[in-house]
Amino acid sequence: MQTITVKSPGTLSNLCCGFDALGMALQEPFDIIQVSKRTVSGISIYHKDSYGLSEDPKINIAGVSLQAFISKLAYKEGFDVTIDKKIKPGSGLGSSAASAAGIVVAVNELLGKPFTDNELLLLAMEGEAMASGSRHLDNVAPCVLGGTVLIRDAQNLDIVKLNNPDLFVSIVHPQIEIKTSFAREILPVDIPLKKAVMQWANVGGLVSGICMNDLDLIARSLVDVIVEPVRSKLIPGFDEVKQIAIQSGAMGGGLSGSGPSVFMFSKNLETAEKVESEMKSVFDKIQLECKSYVTRPAQHGIEILELQ
Ligand code: HSE
After folding, report:
1. How many angstroms separate the CA atoms of 262 and 252, rounded?
2. By CB distance 3.0 to 4.6 Å, which of 83, 131, 253, 268 could disulfide with 96?
3. How far is the CA of 36 from the centre of ligand 1 (A)?
């Protein structure tokens, strides 16, 4: 096989209370990555999208993960990579993870699967860490594995894939950029015990709700008393967006990853569409351009579209 094309999904990370510990693969948006083998060593990267990302493999997220892959395998030849990003960088929808994970999964397939999923996660994390300044797995793991994923222990790669709950996801992405590294720097270092208790009780409730597909328990558990109060200040209109979404019938939601995207879960498509349009209307009112989606959790992670 010479060339592979894969679809690499966007992801919701944190899922409100599960900072760095929970993530979910989405059916939309997704990036398309094509990789071809070549006989000379080195990596060439070409971006078809217009986000102005560097094509220098040393500072391109996909390039960094691919170089880690090549070094680990002591592979002598090289690759030509074409990336069409649909997930806007800095959106909070796992754009960097889609690049970092998509490239290593694609090349692994092309070379007959020399690495396990866990090894691929570590390689993907190289690019993700360069982009965000931290080694979190809550975007990369659902991107590779699909479904809803619990990162029980990131250091020892103790990762639990959960079933997807039967729900719909509305996302609004105001066109401002929030760098994950900055959104992490502003977080509190110490957490009062009372808040910690609320947070871990909600994580327990959320995971139980997901496992039992108990949508009401999921709704009650979508509460973040630690991270959201700090980060939501970076997003104009956030409180109103959240309020209108709940009034429109959403189960609950909050910041997608480090933002600025806001996600909401709904029990059916009709509600999810209403929630999407109501949330958008708040950003319209304050003249903040935004992109929006109604999508669902994805059962599969990165998928092969073509192998030839
Ligand atoms: N868990 C990470 C954070 C995800 O919230 O900083 C970043 O996309």
Report:
1. 11
2. 131
3. 31
In this structure, whether the domain defined by 3-163+298-307 belongs to CATH 3.40.50.720 is answered with: no
Is the CB of residue 60 less than 8 Å from the CB of residue 54? Answer: yes
Report mean pLDDT in 10-residue bins for the chain, 308 residues: 96 98 98 96 96 95 97 96 96 95 98 97 95 90 98 96 96 92 93 98 98 98 98 96 98 96 98 98 95 96 96
Task: Determine how many CB atoms are found less than 10 A away from the CB of residue 283.
Answer: 25
- Output the six-digit token pair for 261: 């995207």
Q: Could you tell me the two tokens for 248? A: 């429109």
Which residues belong to the active site? 128, 180
Cβ(180) – ligand 1 distance below 6 Å = yes
Q: Which CATH number fits domain 168-295: 3.40.50.20, 3.30.70.890, 3.40.50.300, 3.40.50.1370?
A: 3.30.70.890
- Domain segments of the chain: what residues? 3-163+298-307, 168-295
Residue with tokens 């997608």: 256
Please identify which residue in the block is written with the tokens 């959960």.
162
Nearest ligand 1 atom to alpha carbon 258: 5
Separation of alpha carbons 279 and 60, rounded Å: 33
Which residue among 226, 258, 262 has the greatest number of ligand 1 atoms within 8 angstroms of its CB, and so is best to mutate? 258
Measured distance CA(284)–CA(298) in Å, rounded: 29
Q: How far is the CA of 23 from the centre of ligand 1 (A)?
A: 10
